């Protein structure tokens, strides 16, 4: 009798959702967004790891690249190391993802700019353990023009980093500038 041992399994998949929504029917936070995901991953049985070698996420034309790994011990996640990075993003597109009504004050404003977003989740996970989460965002060439104001706020740029680990979070905004 021969028993084959498998140490590595690979997967590739593509998922397309024509209308992704999240929240309640009466008050969706995200409503009817086109979403697609292509991914390549591998499972190494001997090491108890699931590795996302390549993940391409597209949310309404906003593109993100994902990579990372998850280690499993005793059938429970124990360690995660995962990153998500965007390509150049249009600020108007980013704001279109937010729930309607969240930014009521800006609905009549002309808003432009180029942004980038990156996030990392790394550390131990499980009961009583939380990995460190860091999110970095930047904006360049930003402009906000309200109809009732005579002049736009222009050349808006900044870099920001949010780090959350355990019970503490820290937000740091650097290199902020704008012309009024």
Tell me the β content: over 45%
Summing up helix and strand content along with how strands pair, one would put the structural category as: mainly beta
User: Could you list the spans in which at least 5 consecutive residues all have pLDDT below 50?
Assistant: none
The rounded Rg comes to: 21 Å
Provide a descriptive summary of the structure in words:
- 3% of the residues lie in helices and 68% in strands.
- The model has no long low-confidence stretch (mean pLDDT 88).
- A hairpin with a 7-residue loop joins strand 7 and strand 8.
- It is built from one helix and ten strands.
- By secondary structure, it is mainly β.
- Strands 1, 2, 3, 4, 5, 6, 7, 8, 9 and 10 form a ten-stranded antiparallel β-sheet that branches.
């Amino acid at each position: 009798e021969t028993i084959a041992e498998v140490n590595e399994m690979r997967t590739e998949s593509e998922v397309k959702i024509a209308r992704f929504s999240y929240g309640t029917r009466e008050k969706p936070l995200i409503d009817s967004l086109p979403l697609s995901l292509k991914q390549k991953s591998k499972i190494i049985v001997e090491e108890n790891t699931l590795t996302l070698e390549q993940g391409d996420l597209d949310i309404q034309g906003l593109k993100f690249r994902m990579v990372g790994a998850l280690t499993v011990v005793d059938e429970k996640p124990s360690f995660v190391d995962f990153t998500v990075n965007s390509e150049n993003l249009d600020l108007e597109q980013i704001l279109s993802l937010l729930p309607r009504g969240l930014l009521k004050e800006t609905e009549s404003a002309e808003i432009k700019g180029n942004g980038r977003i990156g996030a990392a989740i790394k550390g131990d996970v499980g009961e009583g353990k939380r990995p460190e989460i860091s999110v970095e965002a930047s904006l360049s060439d930003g402009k906000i023009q309200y109809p009732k104001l005579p002049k736009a706020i222009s050349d808006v740029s900044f870099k920001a980093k949010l780090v959350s680990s355990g019970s503490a979070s820290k937000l740091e905004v650097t290199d902020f500038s704008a012309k009024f």
